[in-house]
Amino acid sequence: MENKEILLAITELKSSIDKRFDTLEKQFDNRLDSVSEELYKIKKYLDTVEVQQSEDTRKIINKIEKELIILNHDVKFLAEKFGIHDMKLYGIERKLNTKC
């Protein structure tokens, strides 16, 4: 083979490789775009779930706070009925009974 033929073969091979790399690059870009889009959807979903969970958590905390306020009122009412000293004696007695 002459130098021209070798040079022509190399040029054709390079052209073929360039086309193949262009095709692979386009496929890679398409897949990367697809993955990026899916990640965006996942992030949006997680943000939505996170907001919902924080709202649910706030509702539960508010409910617990209201129940604690009611419980505190009940304890004060009982303290007035039984007397603070009687409640303290009852608490000590209960602790002693649970230790035995």
Description:
With 100 residues, this protein is mainly α. It has one domain. It is 96% helix and 0% strand. It has helices spanning 3-82, 84-99. The longest helix has 80 residues, at 3-82. It is rod-shaped and about 115 Å long.
Task: Count the domains.
Answer: 1
Radius of gyration: 38 Å
Could you give the distance between the termini? 106 Å
Helix content: over 70%
User: Based on the structure, what is the oligomeric state of the protein chains?
Assistant: single chain
The computed structural class is mainly alpha
Helix and strand succession?
A: HH
Q: What shape does the CA trace take?
A: rod-shaped
Largest sheet: none
Low-confidence stretches: none
In DSSP terms, counting alpha (H) and pi (I) runs of 4 or more, how many helices?
A: 2
Strand-residue proportion: under 5%
Count the strands? 0
Mean pLDDT, nearest integer? 84
Summarize the SSE layout with pairings.
Elements (H helix, E strand, L loop, with lengths): L2 H80 L1 H16 L1
Helix pairs in contact: 1-2
Brief synopsis:
Helix content is 96%, strand content 0%. The protein has 100 residues and is mainly alpha-helical.
